[in-house]
Write a structure and sequence with these properties.
The chain is an alpha+beta fold. It contains 18 helices and 11 strands. It has helices at 2-10, 18-45, 52-77, 82-85, 88-107, 124-146, 153-175, 182-198, 213-226, 245-260, 290-305, 331-342, 355-376, 398-402, 406-410, 430-442, 457-460, 472-475; strands at 111-115, 118-122, 230-237, 266-269, 275-280, 317-322, 350-352, 387-389, 394-396, 422-425, 447-450. Strands 4-5-3-6-7 form a 5-stranded mixed sheet, with helices on both faces. A two-stranded antiparallel sheet has the order 1-2. Helix 1 (2-10) packs antiparallel against helix 2, helix 5 runs antiparallel to helix 6 and helix 12 crosses helix 13 (355-376). The radius of gyration is 33 Å and the shape is extended.
């Protein structure tokens, strides 16, 4: 089963995602573990024909790779948790624990059983292996519990199921030594991970076989976690094509080949028909040459889009150029900038997204986040604006409404000829305004509007209306 999985992986381009590399490592270690399991059984069965040392080393190697499998599984569980994965203390502790465990296994005594067709090993080395493996499995499961909110939900579910299957298989084999099912349990875990997360076909565009939008987001997130400096060129291809489906697919494939020839590190599909080309700083590309490389790519694309595609199709493209990743705080900020500026660029225009543009989107995101949080926490303080009578051409005092001043209340009378009628309100005394709103509601207006934008000096100067916008955090208290 695992050989088949490895074959499928070898047929596809590597996405570069950390989780994919960890899965490949787990797959290789699991295959070696199963192979050594089979060889150790054969070594015990034919111990008289083989040397004692050969049987000893085969069994000890199998036990060591079991512990190594637990170590790799633990790191796979951390693949979405950058602060844990990049924690040097955690990484060092895990390595020391695993190395010391393997050394202890290699120096511990081991015994062999071979009677009536039942073959297995036992003794202190085997017991120690079970203990170490149980600690690593439980640790991996606890990671999904403690850091579950930071994990991909499918990965969280798959890792938990994987750990449970291997743990139960180990418990069964501990009490029924003849049932050698731990290696099989690891293989089942690999299949679960493949089906849930690591199938290389899932993260690819169906037509071009390039990596899709979600994989692009994951890859950029990983670059930020690694603090890699990179630039991005997004080619926004116009959506309205009037061609046959067969020719359309042919054009998209041709465009894909053009994007891959630009010299970028990775090519992804973006929103709609967009292409996202990432240029990373490396030993081959220095940071000062990054702008020159992307500028050359834009010139090359402009020249190609000036010609026809397919039989005789003229297709326009617009360009979003992100010169430096450091202008944005992370993958979410990058994606927000992408969506914000994508629809604002004109045909064939090149829009360069620098620090000023990134800060603009950042401020909008922070304001939006604060407002949503305030609404969730019920921290929005409402001020009511005086009520205006369209008949008498005068404002109605909210305080006067609460005091039930007759001349003021009479101004709330609404006739059918006046409709539709709206009442906009603000104020400073919250309790009085709440009462006023209840009175206004009884008048039956078509709508009641809350004002945070009135610029009149006597209103804004008192901190109401537009005055509240001078300090948004204070407005949301």
């Amino acid at each position: 089963m695992e050989i088949v999985l490895l074959y499928f992986y070898s047929r596809h381009e590597d996405s570069g995602l950390y989780s994919e590399k960890l899965f490949q490592r787990n797959l290789m270690v699991s295959m070696l573990c199963i192979s050594l399991d089979i060889l150790s059984v054969l070594g015990i069965a034919y111990r008289t024909e083989l040397s004692e040392f050969t049987t000893y080393m085969l069994c000890k190697s199998y036990l060591s790779f079991l512990v190594l499998s637990g170590y790799e599984a633990c790191f796979y569980a951390c693949s979405d948790i950058a602060r844990l994965r990049n924690n040097e203390v955690f990484t060092f502790t895990m390595r020391v624990f695993t190395i010391m465990g393997i050394v202890a296994i290699m120096v511990s005594p081991i015994l062999f059983y071979n009677q009536d067709g039942i073959v297995y090993s036992y003794g202190p080395a085997v017991t120690l292996t079970y203990v170490l493996e149980a600690i690593l499995l439980i640790g991996s499961y606890l990671i999904t519990v403690i850091y579950g909110k930071e994990m991909n939900k499918n990965r969280r579910r798959a890792v938990r199921l994987w750990m449970l299957i291997v743990f139960m298989a180990g418990a069964v084999q501990l009490f029924y030594n003849g049932l050698l099912i731990v290696g099989f349990a690891w293989a089942v875990g690999m299949i679960i991970l493949y089906a849930e997360l690591e199938n290389p076909e899932v993260g690819r565009d169906r037509i071009t076989a390039t990596f899709d939008y979600q994989t692009m987001r994951d890859y950029i997130k990983q670059l930020y976690e690694r603090r890699t400096v990179f630039g991005v060129l997004i080619v926004c291809v116009e959506d309205a094509w009037r061609v046959e489906v067969k020719e359309e697919n042919s054009i998209i494939l041709e465009m894909t080949d053009v994007m891959k020839d630009l010299g970028g590190t990775r090519v992804f599909r973006g929103v709609g028909r967009d292409f996202v080309v990432i240029f990373e700083i490396s030993h081959l590309v220095e940071e000062e040459n990054l702008d020159e490389q992307i500028d050359y790519a834009i010139c090359k694309l402009k020249n190609r889009f000036a010609h026809h595609w397919g039989s005789d199709n003229r297709i326009d493209a617009r360009y979003l150029w992100f010169p430096r990743s450091r202008y944005m705080e992370g993958a979410d900020a990058f994606v927000t900038c992408y969506h914000y500026f994508r629809d604002s660029i004109e045909e064939t225009e090149v829009r360069k997204i620098g620090k000023e543009e990134a800060d603009l989107v950042k401020n909008r995101r922070e304001t939006s986040r604060e407002i949503r949080k305030a609404l969730t926490d019920d921290r929005v303080e409402v001020y009511y604006q005086p009520i205006y009578s369209t008949v008498e051409k005068k404002f109605v005092s909210a305080e006067a409404l609460v005091r039930d001043v007759k001349s003021t209340v009479n101004k709330l009378n609404i006739s059918d000829e006046e409709r539709p009628v709206g009442i906009q309100i603000y104020g400073r005394d919250v309790e009085a305004m709440v009462e006023a709103a209840k009175i206004v509601e009884q008048a039956g207006p078509d709508l009641i509007d809350l004002n945070f934008g009135c610029p009149v000096k006597k209103v804004a100067g008192k901190g109401a209306g537009a005055g509240m916008l001078q300090n948004i955090p204070k407005m949301l208290e």
